[in-house]
Protein 1
Amino acid sequence: MKLKVYRYQEGMEYPEYDSFEVEREPGLTVLGALLQIQEQLDDSLSFRYSCRGAVCGTCAMLINKVPALACRTQIEPLLKGDLQVSLFPYPGAEETVPWDAKKEVLIEPLPHMAVIKDLMVDMDKFFEYYHFIQPVFKPSDINPEKERLMDPQDVKKLEEYTSCILCAACFGACPVEGENPEYLGPAALAKLYRFHIDPREEDTSRLKIADIPPGWWACDSIGNCLRVCPKKVPPIKAINLAREELNEKK
Ligand code: SF4
Ligand code: FES
């Protein structure tokens, strides 16, 4: 079984693609296959990973043109076509090299971020937007005697957004991000909304942080973000609710 892998390093005019023959074994993940390549075939291949359990968010990459976690994507179902995700076309995932999806897996870096080397991208822009929305809990009472109690219904609402692992798969899959690099992006906006609806928060003006053209208003409600999110976070829902609330106040 072949892996067709994007290769780039500083100084190259254009990226190249290398094909590697990997041993096919039950349960093998894309990350497992990349580690096989690194250990046995080419130790210069660069990619990021840490937890290997879909928790740290560092192994997101473009797998058969879909942003996904390498540690959670198994090769067998991928070759059988069982993991197909249909996405709205977007710049960044357009056709690059031909590949036979039944026999090989195409591995590329996440779109919309500069490539540092091979599958490693520069995440600075993604985290700049994340910090822009001030992802810091601002409680109303500083030192409660006991824990801050919450209504279970409120906890449920928050939980839709708290599971984000900042993998940037949504950022890489967003057609708007491809056309407007200033757009704060799905993950940052979903996180901002999560703090806005937290009843323990003191700051009631949080929505205004993204009340700017590249904020809430830039989204085209296409939905690639939800389709690729490994944690099923619904940024579009947050964005639409934030827009409704801001419109009501205008
Ligand atoms: S919202 Fe989902 S896809 Fe986007 S960064 Fe968070 S976990 Fe990843
Ligand atoms: S290695 Fe941590 S999410 Fe894949």
Note: The beta strands are 2-7, 16-21, 60-63, 66-69, 104-108, 115-117, 120-121.
Protein 2
Amino acid sequence: MTELPATTTRKLGLVIDLDTCVGCHACVISCKGWNTENYGAPLSDQDPYGAEPSGTFLNRVHSYEVTPDSGTAQLVHFPKSCLHCEDAPCVTVCPTGASYKRVEDGIVLVNESDCIGCGLCAWACPYGARELDEAEGVMKKCTLCVDRIYNDNLPEEDRVPACVRTCPAGARHFGDFADPESAVSKLAAERGGLELMPEQGTRPVNRYLPPRPKDRLGGIDLLAPLLAPVAEEPSGFFAWLDKTLDRI
Ligand code: SF4
Ligand code: SF4
Ligand code: SF4
């Protein structure tokens, strides 16, 4: 059993806007790129160009079609990575102390040299946010790009998680939820930011902004004029053209 800190000085995390995410997967690719080349063991792939490719990712985007009681169906793209829970069961279940939550900023990390690949943390995480790297035999998870956000070698505008820096839709935001005046705290408060599965009691730090309902058109069917049946007998100019062509 590994202990969690009673409290953390900061609560760094992400706000993900489900209203503006377009499911482009740019965050998935930039996450894989950064985390394969930098902190810890690379994120391996198995049979990447074969019939059944698989691999390790710290961030995945799932897409769902949602049909409301009234109105049109809506496609919701749902990016998912570790939520850096305050009451993280993946940490308390770890038998070696490899999984831990940092006191200074609340980031949940894995010390890979102490990880024995037992998979207990993946079993304990209710969000499926941990992946065992098949080639390396160690547990991987979102690091909140800890090696970018404090990295003095990077230009200041790059000292945010790779997924946040990359998202072309501006759907991902990074900051400190312990500060009620931070941009992420205000955004979550203004837009009704949601915890994922609060009934699990994990107190995730990340927040999701719910998708707004699509504009209703008041019963007007925009496609109706285009779908109207075509007259079997041409009239007007087309009738003249038809007759002219018949004579040729
Ligand atoms: S989302 Fe899962 S892996 Fe991340 S801190 Fe919570 S329980 Fe642990
Ligand atoms: S914060 Fe970093 S490690 Fe986490 S999902 Fe984003 S890019 Fe991946
Ligand atoms: S990069 Fe942004 S818009 Fe694209 S899938 Fe990720 S969160 Fe959504």
Note: The mean pLDDT is 92.
Protein 3
Amino acid sequence: MKKEISFTLNNEKVMVEVDPKWTLLHVIREVLEMTGTKEGCGYGECGACTVIVDGKAVDSCLYPVMEAEGKVITTIEGLAAKTGGLDPVQAAFVKEGAIQCGFCIPGMIMSAKALLDEKPAPSDDEIKESIEGNLCRCTGYVKILDAVKSIAGGR
Ligand code: FES
Ligand code: FES
């Protein structure tokens, strides 16, 4: 039986009917039709589905939707909306040439964004740790790390 839950998504309150068995990823992509958040592995291994929940980066494919009740959730679509242009993290990825096929990039950016929001001047090791759960099959990671480092602490 479906239940109604509400949460804040990209600065807007949403109410949605869900099957309690669904994941947050399913609701974001299939019910709310926000497809910037990607489904890669579907079981917590690739980070493509990363969103920010109450300030923390989480794998939305493992996140039971019922736990989203009352939470503040940001997806990749919410970053650009705040500024009217690209978020600084997105702009850094473009500037550093960190994007190839792009499939992993929303998740990478959300992981980096959660870190930088909590700690604006992270160390190189902290940057690596923040994206260690995000797999990229294209870039070799160097440019991705360069992009995050380029805006860490105003470097
Ligand atoms: S789709 Fe969620 S971790 Fe891979
Ligand atoms: S840019 Fe293709 S998977 Fe990362």
Note: Strands lie at 3-9, 12-18, 50-53, 56-59, 72-74.
Protein 4
Amino acid sequence: MHTVESSYSAATAVFNTIHPAGEPWVHTVRRGQIFRIVDLEGNQAVDTLFYNAADPSERYSLTHTIQAQGALYLTVGTTLMSSEGRPMLTIVADTCGRHDTLGGACSCESNTVRYALEKRHMHSCRDNFMTAIAKSGMEGLAFEKRDVVSNINFFMNVPVTPEGQLTFEDGISAPGKYVEMRAEMDVVVLVSNCPQLNNPCNAYNPTPVQFLVWDGA
Ligand SMILES: [Zn+2]
């Protein structure tokens, strides 16, 4: 697992917030800024989508990203590509070393299928994304249901077996691990800090994360 530490210190961040377990979050990161997500207590899945702040119909694309790097896992050196095939952000530091973009976000439907019928009412990332879109007006932009596309799961370990199967495994992250990326365009960040209680991706215990932004070099 390839890891790289950051040279940025929290003291010089222009934005620094602790975000509670299970909740959605929306924020605009400007081109050239550095954006860090810290897994404060370890093994928290941070379901994330990115949109071009100037035109949200251009958004993070897992197929373009996988194709561009010729690999499935995201880590240092990965450029997160848009649906127009343009670089959105580049991962520049990463002390966890593996992030998933295949597993998708949890939803009441998937919770019901994967776990049990009585899990249906439980809070999900899909609901979080929809709530954020409905409530915030998403930084003044008009978003709707179809804008919620396949996402990134930071700190989530979804290994692919030699037979090509996806498995949801115990996380490899730990308290204080972080991932950091440089914005290559102005991006709206949409996060669901996963409320999932039934999946080892959260160690069955959703926990807070920290978001920091620097103005960059
Ligand atoms: Zn989730």
Note: The chain has a mean pLDDT of 89.
